[in-house]
Amino acid sequence: MIFTFTFEVKPDRDAIIPPFTSKLSRSIFLDFSPTYSKFIEAEEPYKPFRITVLKDGNTPVYSKGNGVVTLTGGKIYNFSVTTTLQKVVEEVVGTTSIDKEIFNAKFHVELVNMEMKEELGLEDSRLYKVFFNTPTLLQPPRPRFKRKENRFILFPYVPSFFYSLSSHWNKFMNEKIVGVTGSKTLYYFREVDYNIHPVTTYYGKTPTRGFIGWVLFELRAKRNSKIRENVRKLLDYANYFGVGKSRSIGFGEVKVLKIE
């Protein structure tokens, strides 16, 4: 079961916050869920959470560069949290609203929606459009180097895309998905159009370079085949947990839609 909470956030005055605004989202959510605090510094590569950046309507709010972000006093922003943990649901439902002072402002925060998702899988289609709404940090499998150095690719290469999705899925879902990271998927799930460009943002003092934009894919696998079913499940899963490194803190947020 996947649970998604949506929160509205209203600052009482103009507020200057860090360039990648999920820092505020995460600080706020700690007041809703003590369980979340146990995962913040955990070294596991995959976590049962995804917390988004702040949004102005549907538009992600973050700085493309090292500049700060200024929120407007009295304006309502929002963010969402996705998790697989039932205990977190109990904690959040038992709180519903808070007032929090941080970044020299007071923020009124309310839980405005909760959704549950049990069955995953986008509706079958020939075409799917994937929107990469926040910087996506997609890594190829890391060789066994002594020095651990991040290497992010600046285009959603299909095997790396599905490797990231299936690895996270297999950590938290009961049903395991295999066979989606090789050359077969590369041939069955093809790019037919795209508008992708690199972007640099900061989380803390370190510049992070990823990509945003969209890609239109064509799914050519046979109807009712296992690979087609698994691709549709993972694309739907991406809508809830994102893709790539640091997805738990708002990087790699995607929206996948079927195209008629």
TrEMBL record:
Residues 132-254 form the CRISPR-associated protein Cas6 C-terminal domain. Keywords: Antiviral defense, Endonuclease, Hydrolase, Nuclease. One of its GO terms (biological process) is defense response to virus. Residues 3-115 form the Cas6 N-terminal domain. This is CRISPR-associated endoribonuclease Cas6. The keyword Magnesium does not apply. Pfam families: Cas6_N, CRISPR_Cas6. GO terms for molecular function: endonuclease activity; hydrolase activity, acting on ester bonds.
